[in-house]
Description:
The complex is a heterodimer of chains A (186) and B (551). With 186 residues, chain A is mainly α. Chain A has helices spanning 9-22, 41-54, 68-75, 84-102, 111-122, 136-152, 164-169. Chain A has a domain at 42-53 and 63-169. Chain A is 48% helix and 0% strand. Chain A starts with 8 loop residues before the first helix and ends in a 17-residue tail after the last helix. Chain B has two domains: 1-135 and 221-323 and 422-439 and 481-551, FAD/NAD(P)-binding domain, CATH 3.50.50.60; 174-197 and 325-409 and 441-474, Cholesterol Oxidase, domain 2 (2-Layer Sandwich). Chain B has ten helices and 18 strands. The A-B interface holds A 53-56, 58, 60, 62, 75, 78-80, 115, 118, 144-145, 147-149, 152-154, 156-157, 165-166, 168-172, 175, 177-178, 181, 184-186 and B 47-50, 57-59, 66, 86, 211-218, 225-227, 338, 340, 373-374, 376-377, 386-389, 391-393, 395-396, 399-400.
Amino acid sequence: MDPAYKLSRRGFLQASIAMAAAAGAGVGCEAGATPWRFFSVDEARTLAAICDQIIPPDGDPGAAWAGVVNYIDRQLSGPLASLRNSYRLGLAAVDHNSRTLHSNPFPDATPIQQIELLRRMERGQAPSEPWKQITSIEFFTLVLDHTMQGFYGDPRHGGNREGISWKILGIPYPPIRGRFRPEFKS
Amino acid sequence: MSLKHVNAVVVGAGAGGGIVAKELAAAGLSVVLLERGKWLTPFDCRKDDLHNQRTTVLGAAFGPEEHRNPRVVVDQNGREQIVTPSDGKYNNNAACVGGGTLSYGAMAWRFMEKDFRMRSTYGSVEGSTLEDWPISYNELEPYYEKAEWEVGVSGDDSANIFRAPRKRALPMPPLPPNREYQILKPAAQRLGFHPFDIPMLRNSVPYNGRSGCMRCRWCVGFACEVNAKNGTQNTVIPTALDTGNCELRTECIAREILTDSQGNVRGVAYFDSAPRLQEQTADLVVISGSANESARLLLNSKSRLFPNGLGNRYDWVGRNLQGHAYTGAVGLFDFETYDDLGPGACLAICDFNHGNRGLISGGMLANEFIRLPYHFVNWRAPGIPSWGLAHKQYMRQYYRRSVGIIGPVQELPVFESRVQVDPTVKDYWGIPVARLSGHRHSNDRIAAQFLSSKAEAWLKEAGAMQTWTFLPASGLSGGQHQAGTCRMGNDPKTSVVDRYCRVHDFDNLFVIDGSVHVTNGGFNPVLTIMAIAYYASENLAKWWKSVRGAS
Lengths: 186, 551
């Protein structure tokens, strides 16, 4: 199954809503409106594509399925609110670079093109025009950090759907006191 | 309406302040214990691996409040930055009832005898204010014992041939070994090391009316959900309150220590939670805010008689800020090392704290606490990229097949590593904020290289198929182990407090927390802070009674 961001823009929107509904979040949406608190549909689609190269799906789900975009979106309305502008600028710059290099926004570039652009951003070697108010290194570092948090961190913050990363790593979930050791009573 | 006068105000309900409040209250003094943080319980921030004392990406879970308490940090290029508590550069310790003892990993170390005599042992060192303490291990020994029994320590250091002598064994046995212990102990013995069970301020069996540890993976950085981890908030502070002589006031921010026209301390001005400025007068004041905040409070207590703050006639308040220079090694194995049996850290050696030929200093080495998944993200072997498929595969393959051995190198104090108060930046209450600057001594990295090579050798002997070391950075130290800023000493020109933690030039002002440490040992410092708190409180209470003529 192709990742959601490979669908058309409308397809991605519908897939996001379906995912949110399956997870129990109430989402209402009219044509053109975004289900996210902060991201536009295009921004979320680009971010999902970036995250899915940071932690790609292989035999196990990747960052986009795990809801990393939801994690970041939620925290940008909370403890990470000071980074809202960084995400606005950074995601626009990524798509700008991708259009320059690949004639396509980032989600529609090929995987190899996506990885190559991210590597260039990581080294500060991406085309410089859109990276004036925030550097590509700074933005890439943010997304990398937040993707790791949203994938490996506690699901209560909006990511790590169904504790998937903990299953992948092979640690017991959910955490129940005395679960396999009934001799440890409180 | 003015507050009723009391015998003692203690500022800070952490490792030091909690014990002082209880000792004074038990001796019959009336005590007000001020704490700027909240009284948090384990259920305020349950097992949240992104929001705890160790991982602050979503905030500093144990205080202080994120938007009201900035600091200024100056880097080694002189560049200033305003930082908030969740930023690693902030140099935070917790701000809540119990302080760091609510959420720590709870290693409970007695310093070694040489740790009190670093200058006599190693000589004077260029670029460092290395000095002996004015007190010896022997003088503190009975108070280490008191802390071990009253707050509660489990473990077994009898195999540690390097340890300082103890008169009484620990009150509780160690926790049963985990898989890492079983892998590492024989390897250490084959190398000629002397491994032993780490003493921990944690119940291994029911003690003091609370249960033993339930071996979960959320220990260091979290409050304990079965209340088996021992801090001042579940031992001495409730005891202090039960005497009827101690009142705990939370969310109260000390603004300055008040003095009278003769230069005697007369109380503390603080903001309550309204916020309203209050004046609590007292016969004596004890500052226990931890190294950054205690120094800040003294420096902010300016008056005509004390234009540079209290205890600061010779510019030693805030100096010599220390922590520990953590170093160590990681090993990857081709068999499972993980058994989900917390807290994880259990085995240590003190073979390399001292006596390292040609080297100054050293430190303890121990296996690390359980790494939660987000921690392990950056435990990358050399050559593993930080993202992409290779990183994901690495995580999947090695999360359960990795062991870390790390240790706190004893730093050499640096005079330029310091806490000042900022001339312009103020906190929410209008109080000038702490301004931090400085760097580590170059010896710290040299000692770290040596210590980490021993950690690596240990992992290899245990069967690791790949190992690597990591070294500390050279910037300012402090953090959870912050110490040194109100140095104890006999000479008022080169110290802030005397051997009884009394601020020089004052009768009734004391600093009783990690600030007084001359040097900080090659160990987590909390048990030493507790021992000093018992020791200093005993003398304080004696003095107060003799002055009052009380029976």
